[in-house]
Amino acid sequence: MLLSQAVKLVEAFADHGDLLQSGFIVNANYFGPQEEGLSYLQPFIDLKPVIQSVKMVNWTGVFADAYFGLDTTGCVKGQYVNAYTEALKQTDVGTLESFFADLSDFSATNFPSIRASLVIHRFPTQAVLAVPDNDTVYPYRDIKMHV
Length: 147
Prior knowledge:
The chain is mainly alpha-helical. The chain has helices at about 5-15, 35-45, 60-65, 95-110, 125-130; strands at about 85-90, 120, 145. The chain is built from 5 helices and 3 strands; from the N terminus they run H-H-H-E-H-E-H-E.
């Protein structure tokens, strides 16, 4: 996904009115100097997010700080969580917009008994694709994201 497509996707999801409606969280990890990473985040910052947090984090703290610390709410005793994933080789912004709209309607209709979320993990594939196929047992290294 090009950065311009990602910004278009965020713009489509950012119309949340009040905080009881669906919203969009961008969590980015950049391995390098903060100033360099901020240049990649600038198109998202220009959208004027409701909440923003940019910080340097040690590798051991990445998951605790991800998504504004929401990761710590995932393993609560008595909470039932079902996670289903798909591996995708391409991004279709229109399909994601349509799915997000359906998910938002479903969540609003069934709130608070069901609190649904959509998580998209995108990552670079250059390093894994540089390894010859016969050197690893990991299939599907050419996917672009997990949904």
